[in-house]
Specification:
By secondary structure, this protein is mostly helical. 74% of the residues lie in helices and 1% in strands. The chain is built from eleven helices and two strands, in the order H-E-H-E-H-H-H-H-H-H-H-H-H. The protein has a two-stranded antiparallel sheet with strand order 1-2. Helix 3 packs across helix 11, helix 4 packs antiparallel against helix 5 and helix 7 packs antiparallel against helix 9. The chain starts with 6 loop residues before the first helix and ends with a helix. The mean pLDDT is 85.
């Protein structure tokens, strides 16, 4: 009797197969090049002109070199040998601190303001032009102004994260609050529920999935922006690590940093995915 694989097992096998294909293509793409020169050509002249039968190694790191870098970097992620030589754990910690600082500041502003906008058509129409003007501006465009006024690189990076996190949370919160079912609000009005109690017991639970969606989008954007911001301000952080390793012409370390950025970003997104499932409800 044949055993049918479950959907999860099929997905796992397909994912492992894709990973094997990626490694194979990567290995083949980084194989040394062999240049064969005709036998009647003088070997010294051929070597001088870059010919001969010698193998020319690819400058792009191989999977084996990448695996060795992963082992070396992750075996001691929190070492500190000075300003330009810190472990990947320390660099990620600096970046996460800036992201979380700017993100929570944005939440403190955006969620209450979104409640006000969602509950009042007048306030919405008054604030909407400002939102539409400021929302399309690249967060990095604020960096020079932040550096000039704040005069601190780390605080300026936090301000940039605050700006880029603000709009998705604000818009989604206002949308969620404005679309709470009218019959639920009518029942709370009939029961003469106080405005504060209505906000926390009726509106917030109903709008929570939409609010968390905005927070999830904001966190994704913030993690993207912090890399570019740290490349500009320098000093510490995963963005600075990438730029510093590029200046050192270490492509292996650059690839390693890119992988770490992806892993941490996936972990942050997964946290908000789990929170969204916890607050989701079936009507």
């Amino acid at each position: 009797m044949k055993t049918r694989l479950s959907l999860g097992q099929q997905s796992t096998l397909l994912s492992l197969g894709l990973f094997a294909v990626i490694l194979l293509v990567w290995q083949l793409a980084t194989l040394p090049e062999v240049r064969i020169v005709a036998a009647d050509i003088d070997p010294e002249y051929a070597a001088l002109m870059g010919g001969g039968a010698a193998k020319s190694a690819s400058s792009f790191p191989t999977p084996i070199a990448m695996a060795q870098t992963l082992w070396d970097k992750l075996s001691d992620p929190f070492y500190d040998n000075g300003p330009n030589d810190k472990g990947i754990g320390i660099q990620l910690a600096y970046s996460l601190a800036r992201v979380l600082g700017g993100f929570f500041l944005a939440a403190v502003v955006a969620i209450p303001l979104g409640f006000v906008i969602g509950n009042s058509r007048v306030v919405y129409q008054a604030i909407d032009p400002y939102v539409q003007v400021l929302k399309p501006i690249s967060p990095l465009a604020w960096m020079p102004l932040a550096l000039y006024t704040i005069k601190d690189a780390s605080a300026s990076a936090i301000f940039v994260i605050f700006i880029c996190s603000l709009w998705p949370m604000l818009i989604n919160t206002a949308h969620g609050v404005a679309n709470v079912r009218r019959d639920w609000l009518d029942v709370s009005r009939t029961l003469e529920v106080s405005p504060l109690r209505k906000a926390f017991r009726v509106i917030l639970p109903a709008a929570a999935p939409t609010i968390l969606t905005g927070m999830r989008i904001s966190m994704g954007i913030a993690w993207l922006v912090i890399v570019a911001a740290e490349m500009l301000v320098g000093g510490t952080g995963i963005g600075y690590f990438v730029w510093n390793e590029w200046n050192n012409l270490s492509l292996t370390n650059v690839l390693f940093a890119i992988l770490m950025i992806g892993v941490v970003g996936m972990a942050l997104d997964s946290v908000f995915g789990l929170l969204s499932k916890r607050v989701a409800y079936q009507e």
